[in-house]
Design goal:
With 422 residues, this protein is α+β, with helices and mostly antiparallel strands. The protein folds into three domains: 85 residues, Phosphorylase Kinase, domain 1, CATH 3.30.200.20; 171 residues, Transferase(Phosphotransferase) domain 1 (Transferase(Phosphotransferase), domain 1, Orthogonal Bundle), CATH 1.10.510.10; 94 residues, Immunoglobulin-like (Sandwich). 30% of the residues lie in helices and 27% in strands. The chain has ten helices and 21 strands. The strands form six sheets. It has a six-stranded antiparallel β-sheet with strand order 1-2-3-4-6-5, covered by helices on one side. Strands 12-13-20-16 form a four-stranded antiparallel β-sheet, with no helix packed on it. Strands 17-18-15-21 form a four-stranded antiparallel β-sheet. A hairpin with a 4-residue loop joins strand 3 and strand 4.
Length: 422
């Protein structure tokens, strides 16, 4: 039993309890080695699943410790106490955004935009470093008395099973702030962080999350998976941006860096027309069916025309001009696990602003792509082609898209990618 005055990790003296949650207890503590106040989160884990979760917590915490941003709660240390992992965090005298909403109700749009811009800045820096938060929600947004907002718990909640499906098939935590693709069973990725930020800001301006609340977790999870968001009524000028962040298709959401830009500048988001066609993994098969039918229909015409033209002199086509590439693409694996990996592909304009681009590569053996964002995907056997989403067709300097791939091999293989522009 841990109590006030206990020494954790040989240096952190517990001085007072800050709060308690599903994951454990958070204490204010004094770092006796560096003479500073810190927060110590004692995680409540037990059994075999607890041991596995503890290992994941250690791994996630070490990853999060690499992120240093003024709007992210810093991870100072990871220690063990009585066999349980403990996180030593930056101490910020603050209240959570959920507490502020509970006390004040719906917040003004300009105040929420200021909070959201700070949180998006920290999350954008995390995404640049290949870190997915996985649990953006009002409970994890801390507001200091001077208005500074900081995001906490990078990957830690997900590592111990909060807001996810546990090994026993029971959903732990509320799914109210999950992205639809995560609620449907996909792995959390950069676009799901964007959606969860949108849900968090929606709850701040509207007073309730976009899919509502309720005691029936399964029913709520199904509503989230369907992705039908009620249009905001109290969000004012922030409403169009919220709807962009909350688009059901991950490929149609902005990047976190774009979200930060619009939240901090107030610049309105693009105007979206309803999409009549979305390229998915199933579309190449449909295209192949149409191509087969078209080939059969044209066969008879081809025979007649071929007989008429077989003796006619054929023009010699001039060789295509050799042009310097106008764009470059780099493929970087940002995270990996035994059965797959996450990659970020950066497109850079070489000599002039691009007005359209295509990145293509051959998929290494044993690999398949299960999710892609910030672009539209076409698959033809092992040939992969990615074209821009609506908002990143024009590239002045650089843009990027990300993907989740599965692999049969022990190590992910990085393919060679080519970028072309019309």
């Amino acid at each position: 039993m841990t109590g006030k005055g206990d020494l954790v990790g040989g240096r952190y003296r517990l001085t007072g309890r800050i709060g308690r949650g599903a994951m454990g207890v958070v204490w204010r503590a004094h770092d006796e080695r560096l003479d500073r106040t810190v927060a110590v989160k004692l995680l409540a884990l037990g059994g075999a699943e607890g041991d596995q979760a503890g290992e994941r917590v250690m791994r996630e915490a070490r990853l999060a410790a690499k992120l240093q941003h003024p709007n992210a709660i810093a991870v100072h240390d990871v220690v063990e106490h009585d066999g349980h992992p403990c996180l030593v965090l930056e101490y910020l005298p603050s209240r959570s955004l959920s507490e502020v909403i509970a006390e004040r109700g719906a917040l003004p749009a300009d105040e929420v935009a200021r909070i959201g811009g700070q949180v998006a800045a920290a999350l954008a820096a995390a995404h640049d470093a290949g870190i997915v938060h996985r649990d953006v929600k009002p409970d994890n947004v801390l507001i200091a008395p001077d208005g500074t907002a900081k995001i906490t718990d990078f990957g830690i909640s997900r590592a111990v099973g909060d807001a996810t499906m546990t090994g026993t098939g029971v959903i732990a935590g509320t799914p109210a702030f999950l992205a639809p693709e995560v609620a449907a069973g996909d792995r959390a990725a950069f676009p799901s962080d964007v959606f969860s930020l949108g849900s968090t800001l929606y709850a701040a301006t509207e007073g309730v999350p976009p899919f509502g609340m309720g005691d029936n977790t399964i029913a709520l999870l199904l509503r989230v998976a369907e992705g039908q968001v009620a249009p905001p009524r109290r969000s004012g000028s922030l409403a169009p941006l919220l709807l962009w962040l909350l688009r059901t298709d991950p490929a149609e959401r902005p990047t976190m860096r774009q979200a930060q830009h619009h939240l901090t500048t107030g610049e309105p988001p693009p105007t979206f027309a309803p999409r009549t066609e979305t390229k998915t993994l199933a579309k190449p098969r449909r295209r192949a069916v149409f191509a087969t039918l078209g080939a059969a229909a044209l066969l008879g015409i081809g025979l007649v025309v071929g007989l008429a033209l077989r003796d006619a002199p054929q023009p010699v086509a001039a060789p295509p001009p050799t042009l310097a590439p106008t764009c470059q693409a780099t493929y970087k694996i940002t995270n990996s696990w035994p059965t797959g990996y996450e990659a970020l592909v950066t497109v850079t304009a070489s000599s002039k602003p691009l007005r359209g681009w295509t990145v293509s590569w051959m998929l290494p053996g044993g690999q398949s792509i299960g999710q892609l964002w910030n672009g539209t995907l076409s698959v033809d056997g092992s040939s992969i082609r990615v074209e821009p989403a609506t908002w990143n067709t024009a590239v002045d300097r650089t843009t990027n898209f990300g993907l989740i791939a599965s692999t049969d091999g022990p190590q992910p293989v990085t393919p060679s990618v080519a970028c072309t522009s019309p």
